[in-house]
Amino acid sequence: MSQAELVLSVSDVKAGYGDENVLHGVSIEVPRGEVVAVIGPNGSGKSTLLKTIYGLLRPRGGAVVFRDTADARHDLVGQPPYAITRLGVNFVPQLANVFADLSVRENLEVGAFVHRGRFQDQLAKILEVFPALQTRLSRRAATLSGGQRQMLGIARALISEPQLLVLDEPSAGLAPQVVDEVFSTIKEINARGVSILMVE
Protein backbone atom coordinates (compact mmCIF):
# COMPACT_ATOMS: atom_id res chain seq x y z
CA MET A 1 0.00 0.00 0.00
CA SER A 2 1.37 3.42 -0.95
CA GLN A 3 1.87 6.11 1.68
CA ALA A 4 -0.75 8.28 -0.09
CA GLU A 5 -3.40 5.64 0.69
CA LEU A 6 -2.68 5.87 4.44
CA VAL A 7 -4.31 8.42 6.72
CA LEU A 8 -2.03 7.39 9.62
CA SER A 9 1.34 5.69 9.80
CA VAL A 10 2.91 4.82 13.16
CA SER A 11 6.44 3.44 12.85
CA ASP A 12 8.60 1.80 15.55
CA VAL A 13 7.10 3.91 18.36
CA LYS A 14 8.53 3.58 21.85
CA ALA A 15 6.76 5.28 24.75
CA GLY A 16 6.02 4.85 28.41
CA TYR A 17 5.81 6.41 31.85
CA GLY A 18 8.65 7.22 34.23
CA ASP A 19 11.61 4.98 33.44
CA GLU A 20 9.51 2.19 31.93
CA ASN A 21 8.57 1.75 28.29
CA VAL A 22 5.10 0.37 27.62
CA LEU A 23 5.41 0.48 23.84
CA HIS A 24 8.48 -1.27 22.46
CA GLY A 25 8.67 -0.44 18.75
CA VAL A 26 4.98 -0.47 17.78
CA SER A 27 4.00 0.08 14.14
CA ILE A 28 0.48 0.39 12.74
CA GLU A 29 -1.13 1.75 9.57
CA VAL A 30 -4.64 3.09 9.06
CA PRO A 31 -5.75 3.10 5.40
CA ARG A 32 -7.89 6.08 4.41
CA GLY A 33 -11.59 5.40 4.82
CA GLU A 34 -11.11 2.21 6.86
CA VAL A 35 -11.80 1.09 10.43
CA VAL A 36 -8.75 -0.38 12.18
CA ALA A 37 -9.07 -2.02 15.59
CA VAL A 38 -6.27 -2.81 18.03
CA ILE A 39 -7.40 -5.63 20.30
CA GLY A 40 -5.63 -6.87 23.40
CA PRO A 41 -5.85 -7.44 27.16
CA ASN A 42 -5.78 -4.71 29.80
CA GLY A 43 -2.30 -3.38 30.43
CA SER A 44 -0.96 -4.27 26.98
CA GLY A 45 -0.40 -0.63 25.98
CA LYS A 46 -3.44 0.02 23.78
CA SER A 47 -4.44 3.28 25.48
CA THR A 48 -0.80 4.34 25.67
CA LEU A 49 -0.58 3.95 21.90
CA LEU A 50 -3.60 6.20 21.35
CA LYS A 51 -2.34 8.82 23.80
CA THR A 52 0.99 8.84 21.97
CA ILE A 53 -0.70 9.31 18.58
CA TYR A 54 -2.82 12.20 19.93
CA GLY A 55 0.05 14.04 21.58
CA LEU A 56 -0.90 13.34 25.19
CA LEU A 57 2.31 11.33 25.64
CA ARG A 58 5.53 12.11 23.80
CA PRO A 59 7.19 9.05 22.27
CA ARG A 60 10.80 8.20 23.10
CA GLY A 61 11.39 7.01 19.56
CA GLY A 62 9.68 6.34 16.27
CA ALA A 63 7.40 8.35 14.00
CA VAL A 64 3.69 9.25 13.90
CA VAL A 65 2.60 10.68 10.54
CA PHE A 66 -0.88 11.86 9.54
CA ARG A 67 -1.78 12.52 5.90
CA ASP A 68 -4.75 14.81 5.29
CA THR A 69 -7.15 14.64 2.35
CA ALA A 70 -4.88 16.98 0.37
CA ASP A 71 -2.12 14.38 0.91
CA ALA A 72 -0.10 16.82 3.01
CA ARG A 73 2.19 14.97 5.44
CA HIS A 74 2.04 16.04 9.10
CA ASP A 75 4.50 14.79 11.72
CA LEU A 76 2.42 14.52 14.92
CA VAL A 77 5.35 13.94 17.29
CA GLY A 78 5.76 16.98 19.51
CA GLN A 79 2.43 18.53 18.45
CA PRO A 80 0.00 19.46 21.25
CA PRO A 81 -3.47 17.84 21.11
CA TYR A 82 -5.26 21.05 20.07
CA ALA A 83 -2.93 21.36 17.05
CA ILE A 84 -3.53 17.72 16.15
CA THR A 85 -7.28 18.38 16.30
CA ARG A 86 -6.87 21.33 13.92
CA LEU A 87 -4.98 19.08 11.49
CA GLY A 88 -7.90 16.64 11.34
CA VAL A 89 -7.41 14.02 14.07
CA ASN A 90 -9.60 13.79 17.17
CA PHE A 91 -9.60 11.47 20.16
CA VAL A 92 -12.30 10.10 22.48
CA PRO A 93 -10.74 8.77 25.70
CA GLN A 94 -12.21 5.80 27.53
CA LEU A 95 -12.80 7.77 30.73
CA ALA A 96 -13.61 11.43 31.36
CA ASN A 97 -14.76 11.86 27.77
CA VAL A 98 -17.35 14.58 28.54
CA PHE A 99 -17.40 17.71 30.70
CA ALA A 100 -19.88 16.54 33.33
CA ASP A 101 -20.78 20.01 34.64
CA LEU A 102 -21.49 21.42 31.17
CA SER A 103 -24.70 20.90 29.22
CA VAL A 104 -24.78 18.66 26.17
CA ARG A 105 -24.85 21.76 23.96
CA GLU A 106 -21.90 23.31 25.80
CA ASN A 107 -19.91 20.08 25.38
CA LEU A 108 -20.55 20.24 21.65
CA GLU A 109 -19.56 23.92 21.55
CA VAL A 110 -16.23 23.00 23.14
CA GLY A 111 -15.73 20.34 20.48
CA ALA A 112 -16.46 22.84 17.70
CA PHE A 113 -13.75 25.32 18.77
CA VAL A 114 -11.83 24.71 15.54
CA HIS A 115 -14.82 25.96 13.53
CA ARG A 116 -15.59 29.27 15.20
CA GLY A 117 -18.68 30.91 13.75
CA ARG A 118 -19.97 27.67 12.22
CA PHE A 119 -21.38 25.98 15.30
CA GLN A 120 -25.04 26.00 14.22
CA ASP A 121 -24.22 24.33 10.90
CA GLN A 122 -22.02 21.78 12.63
CA LEU A 123 -24.67 21.13 15.29
CA ALA A 124 -27.30 20.35 12.66
CA LYS A 125 -24.98 17.81 11.02
CA ILE A 126 -24.07 16.16 14.32
CA LEU A 127 -27.72 15.79 15.35
CA GLU A 128 -28.35 13.86 12.11
CA VAL A 129 -25.92 11.23 13.39
CA PHE A 130 -26.94 11.52 17.07
CA PRO A 131 -30.69 12.35 17.05
CA ALA A 132 -31.07 11.27 20.70
CA LEU A 133 -29.00 14.30 21.75
CA GLN A 134 -31.54 16.72 20.22
CA THR A 135 -33.90 16.55 23.20
CA ARG A 136 -31.05 16.60 25.72
CA LEU A 137 -29.12 19.69 24.59
CA SER A 138 -29.91 21.65 27.75
CA ARG A 139 -29.22 18.77 30.17
CA ARG A 140 -25.99 18.54 32.14
CA ALA A 141 -23.77 15.77 30.83
CA ALA A 142 -23.56 14.37 34.37
CA THR A 143 -27.25 13.38 34.14
CA LEU A 144 -26.78 11.21 31.05
CA SER A 145 -26.57 7.42 31.08
CA GLY A 146 -23.26 5.72 30.32
CA GLY A 147 -24.29 5.06 26.73
CA GLN A 148 -25.50 8.63 26.24
CA ARG A 149 -22.22 9.96 27.61
CA GLN A 150 -20.28 7.77 25.20
CA MET A 151 -22.39 9.07 22.31
CA LEU A 152 -21.83 12.65 23.49
CA GLY A 153 -18.07 12.06 23.73
CA ILE A 154 -18.01 10.75 20.15
CA ALA A 155 -20.28 13.58 18.96
CA ARG A 156 -18.04 16.19 20.59
CA ALA A 157 -15.02 14.76 18.77
CA LEU A 158 -16.90 14.42 15.49
CA ILE A 159 -18.18 18.00 15.47
CA SER A 160 -14.62 19.18 14.73
CA GLU A 161 -14.91 17.33 11.37
CA PRO A 162 -11.93 15.00 11.85
CA GLN A 163 -10.57 12.95 8.98
CA LEU A 164 -9.37 10.38 11.55
CA LEU A 165 -11.33 9.57 14.70
CA VAL A 166 -9.40 7.75 17.46
CA LEU A 167 -11.56 5.86 20.00
CA ASP A 168 -10.35 4.30 23.25
CA GLU A 169 -12.57 1.31 24.14
CA PRO A 170 -15.91 2.84 23.09
CA SER A 171 -17.83 -0.16 24.46
CA ALA A 172 -16.24 -0.18 27.93
CA GLY A 173 -18.78 -0.59 30.73
CA LEU A 174 -21.83 -0.46 28.48
CA ALA A 175 -24.79 -2.85 28.33
CA PRO A 176 -24.78 -5.19 25.30
CA GLN A 177 -27.74 -3.40 23.66
CA VAL A 178 -25.99 -0.05 24.06
CA VAL A 179 -22.76 -1.52 22.66
CA ASP A 180 -24.65 -2.49 19.51
CA GLU A 181 -25.95 1.08 19.20
CA VAL A 182 -22.47 2.56 19.69
CA PHE A 183 -20.93 0.30 17.04
CA SER A 184 -23.79 0.99 14.64
CA THR A 185 -23.06 4.71 15.04
CA ILE A 186 -19.32 4.13 14.49
CA LYS A 187 -20.17 2.26 11.28
CA GLU A 188 -22.33 5.18 10.10
CA ILE A 189 -19.54 7.68 10.90
CA ASN A 190 -17.11 5.60 8.84
CA ALA A 191 -19.62 5.41 5.98
CA ARG A 192 -19.60 9.22 5.95
CA GLY A 193 -15.90 9.14 5.11
CA VAL A 194 -14.19 9.33 8.49
CA SER A 195 -11.30 6.90 9.03
CA ILE A 196 -11.37 5.26 12.45
CA LEU A 197 -8.71 3.81 14.74
CA MET A 198 -10.01 2.22 17.92
CA VAL A 199 -8.89 -0.11 20.65
CA GLU A 200 -10.99 -2.75 22.39
Structure notes:
The structure is a single chain. The protein has one domain: Rossmann fold (3-Layer(aba) Sandwich). It is 32% helix and 26% strand. The protein has helices spanning 46-53, 81-87, 104-111, 119-129, 146-158, 176-191, and strands at residues 6-17, 20-31, 35-38, 61-67, 73-75, 89-92, 164-168, 195-199. The strands form two sheets. The protein has a four-stranded antiparallel beta sheet, with helices on one face. Strands 3-8-7-6 form a four-stranded parallel beta sheet, with helices on both faces. A hairpin with a 5-residue loop joins strand 4 and strand 5. It has six helices and eight strands, in the order E-E-E-H-E-E-H-E-H-H-H-E-H-E. With 200 residues, it is of the alpha/beta class. The two termini are 25 Å apart.
Fill in the keyword field for this structure.
200 residues, 4-stranded parallel beta sheet, 32% helix, Rossmann fold, 26% strand
User: What gross morphology would you assign?
Assistant: globular
CATH architecture designation: 3-Layer(aba) Sandwich
The overall average pLDDT, rounded, is 92
Number of strands: 8
Radius of gyration: 16 Å
Strand numbers in spatial order across the main sheet: 2-1-4-5
- Strand portion, in percent? 25-35%
CATH topology heading: Rossmann fold
Secondary structural class? alpha/beta
Count of runs of 4 or more consecutive helical residues:
6
**Amino-to-carboxy terminus distance:** 25 Å
- The helical percent reads 25-40%
- The top level CATH class name: Alpha Beta
CATH superfamily: P-loop containing nucleotide triphosphate hydrolases
Q: What is the succession of H and E elements?
A: EEEHEEHEHHHEHE
Q: Report on the biggest sheet.
A: 4 strands, antiparallel
> How many structural domains can be distinguished in the coordinates?
1
> Would you identify the regions where 5 or more consecutive residues have pLDDT less than 50?
none
